[in-house]
UniProtKB/TrEMBL annotation:
Family per similarity comment: Belongs to the RbfA family.
Subunit structure of this chain's protein: Monomer. Binds 30S ribosomal subunits, but not 50S ribosomal subunits or 70S ribosomes.
Presence of the UniProt keyword Cytoplasm in the record: yes
UniProt keyword list: Cytoplasm, Ribosome biogenesis
Major location category of this protein: cytoplasm
Summary of the function given for this chain in its UniProt record: One of several proteins that assist in the late maturation steps of the functional core of the 30S ribosomal subunit. Associates with free 30S ribosomal subunits (but not with 30S subunits that are part of 70S ribosomes or polysomes). Required for efficient processing of 16S rRNA. May interact with the 5'-terminal helix region of 16S rRNA.
Cell compartment(s), UniProt: Cytoplasm
UniProt protein name: Ribosome-binding factor A
A single cellular component GO annotation: cytosol
PANTHER family: RIBOSOME-BINDING FACTOR A, CHLOROPLASTIC-RELATED
One MF term in the entry's GO annotations: ribosomal small subunit binding
Length: 115
């Protein structure tokens, strides 16, 4: 039962955090960013926000630094939008799954061409 609630809260946080970053966070270091997933603990106390950033490694680092600096604002705004007794602590991580998937796809194409 609690797992279903955690999933719903995570999905709502994903939507709201994405909206906050795109529309309200005014930091020039933030590049083209997509919130891909939010994982939240069962007790709803901690949330890990996974993001992808379009660009080189330097842009990714700048964007993650800007998100870390603005996470207090993001948490505050998300708390106003998502009705919870306590807003979860937020941490940001770069989501490498898309890059990994692209790499696998490239390798499979190369194997097919060799056959």
């Amino acid at each position: 039962m609690g797992n279903v609630r955690a999933n719903r809260v995570a999905e709502q946080l994903k939507k709201e955090i994405s909206d906050i970053i795109q529309r309200e966070l005014k930091d020039p270091r933030i590049g083209f960013i997509t919130v891909t997933d939010v994982e939240i603990t069962g007790d709803l106390q901690q949330a890990t926000v996974f993001v992808t950033v379009y660009g080189e490694e330097e842009e990714r680092k700048k964007t993650l630094d800007a998100l870390e600096k603005g996470k207090g604002f993001i948490r505050s705004e998300a708390g106003k939008r998502v009705q919870l007794r306590k807003t979860p602590e937020i941490s940001f991580e770069f989501d490498e799954s898309i890059e990994r998937g692209n790499r696998i796809e490239t390798l499979l194409k190369q194997m097919k061409e060799k056959e």
